[in-house]
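Q: My collaborator sent me two sequences in one message, no labels, and asked for predicted structures for both. Can we handle them in order? The first one she listed is below.
A: Yes, handling them in the order given. First sequence, followed by its structure tokens:
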Amino acid sequence: MKDRCLTDEEITAYIDGVVSPEERARIEAHLAKCGFCLHTVAELKQLVTSNETSPVAPTEVALSQAEAVILENTDSPTHFDIALVIRDGICKILDSTGDLLPPRRLSPAAVRRQRSPQTITRISKSLSGFLVTVELKPERKAVKPEVIIVEESTSERPDGLKAKLYSPGACETKYSEQGRISFSPLSSGYYRIEIEEIGTIGLEIKGS
């Protein structure tokens, strides 16, 4: 059975300590290989302890475990990670397991329509026989991700592929149109994009 992410109920029960030893072992085994769920648990622990006399922030151990998970995924044929920072309306890539592409060239007419310069960063990686490109367009203090999917053997852009963007406590579902999938702008945080039958993309966004 394919491993799945933890539900809000499972995470809450785990933090509250009301799960069985077997369930705790299963959850901790999942956290050891899923940076998204690990960060969700760390953030929720911080919220739970915020009203105590001595608030406890997420431990350095938890954060180092999350970094280790990202490093372990570096050579995965179905996953790649992107870490970026948004500063002064510019998107700067801090690290990625994909390949950074040249900026997309805009036509003169498109350039004239823009009120201010806009930076679009493009990163690509081959996943499950598809070339997956992520375009990251800054929008004020957020970034809007768009995924472009091209089948490598035929150069076709598939329609109707389901993609889900997971963020703490939310999930946005979209379908590809001519190989493109656009998501809502994202602010600072950890996100995961799952594309059916292709793979996953991890996004770590930091603010200025």
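Q: And the one she listed second?
A: Here it is, processed independently of the first:
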Amino acid sequence: GLEDYVVVFDDEHNITIDNFNVLEKESINYYFTGLDSFNYEGDDVYKLEYINTYETRFNNGTFFIKFNKESKDKIEVGMYFNNNLDYYDLHADVGLTFSELVSAIGKHVWLQETGLTEWFIRIDDNRFSHGLIGTSYWFFAPITKMKYLGKNLYEITIDYPANEEGINPANDAYTTTHYLIYDPVHERIRFIDHDDNFHWYYPDKGATIAEFFESASDCIFSGSENMNYTFYTKNGKYYIYLKNKQYNFSNTFEVKSIKYKEYNQYEFTVLNGNDTETWYITYNFRSGHEMIISKPNLYDYAVRING
């Protein structure tokens, strides 16, 4: 993943541990150059022992390298931190081709990690679209060039057409180069847009009922209609507890099922006494800060106030 270490093997036996952050000007490097011993441990595992000059960071200079029998582009590296041997899955720093990158991103619509109706990204027939959910505020144009810069970072060139006056001022045709990170391990992308925002985007897949309640439980969502909403599980069942702050009455509803629609919108099947109701809830389970609740006789916007 992008928050893990980069391990570089060079000059026959040197190891460099790069604790990097993509697009940052500086990274922290640890160099291991004094190889004391090299041994084969069996089962495709090799043990390398170096002189440790970073005693405040590493317990020792011992590394275990395990090769992947099924892929030459994957290895496991074991390092000692806090007296524990931790293994990291590492992938070769090999970028995708133009068609591979377009195909990978084009499999999904991608939604911004935060917010309910923020930005989305999609690619259709090599046309890159970046816009606000539920609006006509889009930027879309063909990708004409792509360059891999290393460490999952790509430079993509997009030719935007001329536009008449609209949501944006009229503009002539222009070409812009954007930075884009594609992280295939965690299936996410990061994109620098026209306003120099640099957000994470995830596939528009939605949460399961268990994931939804894990994200929304153990807190209170305070609505604008004098309502508080609490999501919780009990004995393997899922419930929503509503309390009116003004009139001090409350009710509990059992959630029988949820169905993900798109763009952070869910359809809830809810038991109200002996009757079944359909609720619609817009919620970003990755950030979990706010939601829109639409149920019979109520439409409300609520924000998390604790938890």
